[in-house]
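User: Hey, quick favor. My workstation is busy. Could you predict this chain's structure for me?
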Amino acid sequence: MARRRILSVLFLLLTAVAFAGFVALGVWQVKRLAWKEDLIARVDARVHAQAVAAPPQPDWPSVSEDSHEYLHVSVSGQYRPEAVALVSAATQAGQGYWVMAPLQRADGSWVYVNQGFVPQEKRGAAQSGEYTPTEPVTVTGLLRLSHPGGGVFRDNVPAENRWYSRDVQAMAERQGLSPVAPYFVDVQATVSELPVGGLTVIQFRNNHLVYAITWFALAFGMLLAAWLVLRDSRRTR
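Assistant: No problem, here it is.
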């Protein structure tokens, strides 16, 4: 009898610890939910706001995901068509490439512009700069932070000019361009057929409510288990 009582006490202690842990995780997910909803609201406001000038070089250190990602910006300058980089892409329009073209601003700094999507059969034309204007331009679109390293399964190979992510620092280094902004601009939809702009996917996973409910349900399960043990213990006595 004493052994059974000791086991019951130990089980109740474990359920108490588990209950506290599950409640803490549930509360954390509720806080994450509030943060994610606020982020989504802020991004939506940025996307639909009037375009502002893309951050100049002195402001680059302050550019961050929280404050700048998906900001509606405009940038003026002149492309360097021979330095275009093509990044493998899978879009609603099919398999192909993003056309990443470096744009030099009046202060001499560089900003990469994602001119849009071209299908695989247009690779040669895009690589040769056929779709990249040589005259000064003003580009409007969404600011995106550089994506270093590569894709999920494949790494970028700068030496071979093969790209699986939009790593603007590596692209600029390969072409000897400096200084380069830590972001690029996804152009908005244009009237030209190619490249196809305006394909930026703005999507945030928001499963925090489901996670919170799961943790709170587990906490309730611990309370139920403790109640059953206590009831059984009283009956035994």
